[in-house]
Structure prediction request, 375 residues.
Amino acid sequence: MAGTEDIRSSGAVGFAIRQLVQWQYKIMGHHRQASLMDAAIDLVTSATLVTGNVMVVVGGYYMFTRGTVTVGTVYLIISYFNLLAWPIRELTWDVRNMQTVGASVERLIELRQTQSELEDGPGADVPDGPLPLRFEDVSFAYTAEEPVLKDLSFQLEPGKVLGLLGRTGSGKTTLARLVFRLYDPDVGRVSLGGIDVRQPKLTDLRQRVAIVTQDVQLFQASVRDNLTFFDRGVSDERIREAIEALELLDWYRSLPKGLDTRLETGGQGLSAGEAQLLAFTRVLLRDPGLIILDEASSRLDPVTERRIECAIDKLLQDRTAIVIAHRLDTVHRADEIMILEEGTMREYGERERLAGDPNSRFYSLLQTGLEEVLA
Prediction:
């Protein structure tokens, strides 16, 4: 339904309806089976109650004719038996709910038993402070037929900011995923702080590397829990220090209940800018040595974007950073520029030098406009 306009404008209504009918047909089959099971349960329950009533009436009549009980006692026995009807029906409803819960538990068990293809490192220590980054002849492909990165080599010194440019599909986000070790390179080596990223524990590595994207994931919890990811070891004082360091006190004071302000799933009630501020505060609390910003300030109005830019400047102080960008104003803080094209390095060097060299690719991008050339 969200793509209705695109589907209609592209003339794909027939295809979409056909796909919908096929899925609905499958759903109808499952629904029919579930309905038959429900009907069988109801039939068994009703038959049990009817059979029980018949047995109680016959038994009561037999005992009454033998003079064992009175009519009033027979009536009480029948009444007491019928009182069991409601608990029995509740049990049948509980059985149905248990089936749903059982299916969910099976899915969760499957998920927990799924083994990652990434093996945890032996436990090398990641150094403190800003981290140098090095790629050595790195190649990577999601599928063997389509390589995303090809023989990529570069070195980013600690405390430097790399502006990463390229068209969609050039490998920018894949490069960030390799640093964060969501994937391992097929060929070559990625090192952080002089250590191969496959050597530290995954939790230790990801504690020292932070990624901020356009889409901030928020939980149905308090601001405090969203900032600390439910880590009770982080004090409120430390959270406030992080907020103050990013010059976000005005935003903090606007929260109706401070850190106890409850957020809805998906960040309902927060603007895109406020969600980004939450993400930056999360990063500062972790104190990483390398930060990756993947268009973190895009899709914002100019006033909010200026506020975000000030927070980014604070965030990048004394840290190594990679800024993935499509726009010119996003890379103004970069010390070095890398341009990727189809997974290979087209150009790499100091930003000021490339900006002043009429023969460089970066120079031509500045003249043309990054939004038009790299989109």
The radius of gyration is 32 Å.
